[in-house]
Here is the input.
Amino acid sequence: MGQYFSLSAASFLLASGYAGARSVLEPAGEEAQQIAVLFWVMLSGGALIWLGVVGLLLHSALFNRRRLAEKSASRIILWGGVVFPSVTLCALLAYALWLMPGLRPFAQASSAALRIEVTGRQFWWEVVYHPSQGPPVASANEIRLPVGERVELTLKSADVIHSFWIPPLGGKMDMIPGRINRLSLKATKPGVFRGPCAEYCGTSHALMAFSAVAMEPEAFRSWLAAQAIPAPSAGASGSALFLRHGCGSCHFVAGTDARGTIGPDLSHLGSRVTVGAGILPNTEDAVARFIARPELIKPGSSMPAFDMLPPGDVRAIAAWLRGLQ
Ligand code: CUA
Here is the structure.
């Protein structure tokens, strides 16, 4: 059963339309663009040198088998073995060092209009938006950012070391307990990307991901404004069951009596691209499956199973949560 669920999660990530699992080589952000250029320059440099060495080898093995005089052999070693590699490696190193400030542009407090605080937890992401105006907005397992605007991320961990990475937007940065690391990113194209945890952090490390959504600034601002207020709730029975079965002691849902802080904030769960921290598509069925047997989808998760509840109750809770747009 467990295998079935892990397999279905994996095949969903690989084969479904979950656009997101995009490569570093399809950049959609300023930093990722530079990383992609650096990669192609290094790869072309390496390929040229490899071709040169193999060409020389073939030439000497097939066509030019006479012995060289000691003097010309030493000259080949000096130029081909010392001067050429030193110059090439120094040039590549100088290029990489020259790129570096652009790869880690530290957002000045004044230049970033939006700061997003992300805390890594086993095995999900706590997200708090701090816009320059207005109160902070809490969310989880999804990061939205406006295209064309530099965003500052403050990265923390609540337990072990995790690593924050949105491959098409920029390089990775560790999330270390007791430390605040800063990263700044600027998306250049709208899109939905997958952000994996990039540091082994326990059983479900490979199942710890989030969706990153780069949106047009206007759409982003209206989305953030909608997130700042409680979602209009439909399905009073689901809401009552959620509270009666104790879900509210771990989860927060704005506008209700659910005030827990141990698990992800579910205030606008229905508006997210995925559930289970980047693992399943956000459908009522996936939410119900997660509530019933979380350990089958995310081994090592702190959430207890609720499969002792009548299936109708689980369905009603899932339907209500999905409705929190
Ligand atoms: Cu969190 Cu790996």
